[in-house]
Amino acid sequence: MTFTERLYRRSLVAAITAGFALLIVLGLAVAWLVVRTQESSQTVTHTYQVEVTLSQIRVLVERAEAARRGFLLEPRDGFRRVFEETVAQIPPLLDDMAGMVADNPPQVERVRQLTSLTNEHLALLRESIAEREAEGLRPEDIGRVGAEDIALIVGIRDVARAMSQAESDLLRERTDSQQAFVATSYAFMTGAFVLLLLVALGTIWAARQNVRELRQSRDKLRFLNDDLESVVQTRTADLQRANDEIQRFAYIVSHDLRSPLVNVMGFTSELDAATKQLAEMLDKVEAEAPETVSEDARLAVREDLPEAIGFIRSSTEKMDRLINAILRLSREGRRVITPERIDMNAMVRGIVDSLQHRLTEVGAEVKVEPLPDLVSDRVAIEQIFSNLIENAVKYLKPGRPGVIKVRGKRQNDRVVFEIEDNGRGIDPKDHDRVFDLFRRSGSQDQPGEGIGLAHVRALAYRLGGMIGCDSALDQGATFRLSMTAKLHET
């Protein structure tokens, strides 16, 4: 991909991301405007409620005045009852009014004045009704009584008119504000819709471009895969031929090495027998004529020759073990792999049971966690786990109770096993070396030729697996084996 293409892709992604971010901002702004519009609507409704309550108070005051006048003209219970019912409704409305305008100091003062004038006016009304009931007020005095509280009525009307005007002004302001919020909300919604449309179109266009590029890449990849398959088949065939050649070479070389080795071992046995005869003869000569036997001859027969024969024999035996290992590896490479379902828990328990005597001797234990099953070659898997567990037992730390843990888990189409010990550990620089043929790490105080782990790695490769080591000196070692969960016959 060229620099221009990368810049174009990044710019496109940045533009789409910015579009979505701006769309989110617009959405939040629209939500805020909707909330503000609702608040403005509530204030408008509140203003209407104040107006209605004020109108109700004015109507009730006038109704109380009318009932009082009716009672003064003709003192009947009906007029008195209407008066009392009307007067009883005014104080709650005044309280409601005070609560409605509590956030408006000028209106609070007007409500206080209105309440004072209304209470004073109602007191005069009650006083006149009481005088009429006591017949202390004659009909010709009714005009005078009405003139006494006219000032209060005028005051009530003036205060009510002032409050109504103030609420009308608030209503006009709040209505204008509400309309402005609604208009702004519509503008923002329109902008959000346009932006959403642009972002959607841009996203669709970018998706179509990506789909087109993916289709082209898929076609190229299919072509490359087809070509790669032929290359892999060719390389695999070449590797298989080379592997067969190596195995045949190892088999032939091993047999060719064994022939002279057998001769050397045979001649060593003859030399050993001859040395024994010379020793018997030397003993006889020393008994009959000791002065005829030199010190060099005595040392040669009794020390030098047996020591040399011992060196030759130990070397030939080691050579024989190495040749057998090469032959075993060669035969393992030619063996046909036969996949079958393996109960790993049962297999590992069987391996541990076979090592129980050795575990008791060294004071160690093997902890086996539930293991996943797999489909693979039983013989190869058993050899791998036997080698790894036996090595863990062999290289435990003296004086430290040995603990060996075997666990495993499934990872997609593979299975990962771990064999962990708390033994002497392996130097990090030798983590790869220990898997090489005839290579060992650490002190060589245990029998072995450095073949086991090389054999394990070869078997793991044949089964489509990998093996690695994680360890530090004196901190134990963990061998991690990754295997194909289901091996197919080849």
TrEMBL record:
What transmembrane ranges does the database entry give? 12-35, 186-207
Which positions carry the signal peptide feature in this UniProt record? none
Query: Which CDD domains did the record assign?
Result: HisKA (cd00082), HK9-like_sensor (cd19410)
Q: Which domain of life is it from?
A: Bacteria
Keyword terms, alphabetized: Kinase, Membrane, Phosphoprotein, Transferase, Transmembrane, Transmembrane helix
Question: Known SMART domains for this protein?
Answer: HATPase_c, HisKA
Q: What is its EC number?
A: 2.7.13.3
Q: Which Pfam families match?
A: CHASE3 (PF05227), HATPase_c (PF02518), HisKA (PF00512)
As its record notes, the protein acts as a catalyst of:
ATP + protein L-histidine = ADP + protein N-phospho-L-histidine
* Domain (Histidine kinase) ranges: 252-487
User: What is one GO biological process annotated to this record?
Assistant: osmosensory signaling via phosphorelay pathway
MF-aspect GO terms: phosphorelay response regulator activity; phosphorelay sensor kinase activity; protein kinase activator activity
Name the UniProt record assigns to this protein: histidine kinase
